[in-house]
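Appendix B, Record 12. Input sequence as logged:
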Amino acid sequence: MKIEVAEISTAEEESKDALRKILNALGNRQSFKMEAGAGSGKTHSLIDTLQHILQNRYTFLPRDGQRVACITYTNVARQEIVRRTDGSPHILAETIHGFLWEVISPHRKAILEAIPSLTGWAKYLEEVPSLTGYSVSYDLGFRRVNEQTVSLHHEDIPALAIRLFANKKFRNLVRDQFPIILVDEYQDTPAGLAEAFLGEQESRSAQVTYGFFGDHWQQIYDKTCGSIDNLPLEHIDKRANWRSSEAVVRFLNRMRPELPQAPVSDANSGSVTIYHTNNWSGPRGTHSKKNQIPDSVIKETLRWVTEKTQSKDLNPTFSQRPKTLMLTHSSIAAELGFEGINRCFGRNEDFVRKNDDVVAFLLDFVEPCCDFFNDKQYGPMFDLLKRSRPRLRNRNDKTAWTDLFHSVNEARATGSVGDVLDILLQQEYFSVPQAVVRRQQRWELALQEVDEGKMLSEPRRLAEYGNFREVSYQEVVALRAYVEEKTPFSTQHGVKGAQYPAVLAVFGGGWTQYNFTEMIAKFHDRDRLGERDRKRFETSRNLFYVACSRAKIDLTLLFTTELSQNALETLNDWVGASNVTAIEFSPEGTPVDS
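Logged structural output:
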């Protein structure tokens, strides 16, 4: 199949043309959607748009106090926009939840009226006959009704906004504050919100002008909108690829011919190589790991493919290990050595994003303090201790601090998480966060209750804490390296928006929501899939696309589940049969050169 990209003369001209279309839409007060494939410079176009608005502020923001709202999906993206617009007071850059709370929080009465009809609130209101007179808080991020205050959950904010945006008067109030609202990564906005933003068909002069920047093929989160082609928006495509090599762009175009991209004129030639494990003759997994080779064989195969990738003499990027993308944190935990922590917690966010107070204490406080002590950087160490900064009045004080950290270091090297926590909780040289102290106290009390035959009062949190205490502390060290991206591993979800010179993406089982080999096998018949199968297909396709489009120069794919003949034919069509290799295995189960 020939991909037509002749209409893109140069990437620079294409970007200028896209910006002209955006500015023309803004000038006509026409809401628009920019569909921009991976690596197309979508964020650059967004920043250019914001800077043009600032340069012509009185045209676009005629009233005093009016601002452009720029909605992002993450705090990292928000901070980047603030940085690249010099923190302009005429731009409100916020996460989706932050922006929605900004506009709905003044409407306390409407919020309280809507809360009883929201999903998940019934059990919290059983003993509350009326919310009249209550205040509303979003500080905690979880639901609670306490002392005349209603605390909202993160999921409540979009649901409330959708209800309020249905009101024309509310939309007018938003328009008066924010005549232009730009939405970054539109496909990640909560489902139903884009429709609520646009509301009923009104004259353009009475509407907010919305600009949606994104790519529906990069929708990888649940309960988000994905494509918004059904809305009355001017469509603007951006087809240059500023990120990837010629080989990677060709691969992406074969996968996605409806939005063909063109590499920039000085793009590297690059490569795309695929390895699969069809020749493995031993047992394979079942359930979520159906048809996957055993975990021990995956580790050996991954090591073998990584060595093959690094030994390529194609370009200098292979002098370093490629960024390795895996589907689940559990796969990475097994590879990096914090699988015990992974088993302790029911939610990955608790240890990967440090949502758990004890994990956050160890990763953000204890580990950096130990690093500073070991490097004899005592000033930064005491700065981290903040209000616990000690008075070192004599040699005995210094000796006591030295003995403390020697004990901590010994426990870190050979002991458990509980061993380190016990030392820190019993010492008197600096204060431990109250959240950590309370967790320990509740755990000790729970142990007494269990001994007395009672039920745990907080079973999940306390059970996780007890299990976490038993884990080797070296797993915390390994987890910190992963969380701070000091390893070559990441999940395929976690690298969205990132880019790397070389990428090794591993596709296998481990999550019932995804089936990559089935998706590839059905690719040529995708238009004939039923609604349920199509949804499953798109879920796997989108994550596959995100992972593959992170590579700047060289991309390697490893399939650890068996590929059907249809899947192999699709991959051969995408990259050429010469770039698809079946790995051979020795009788002992290790990969060998054929």
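The chain has a mean pLDDT of 89.
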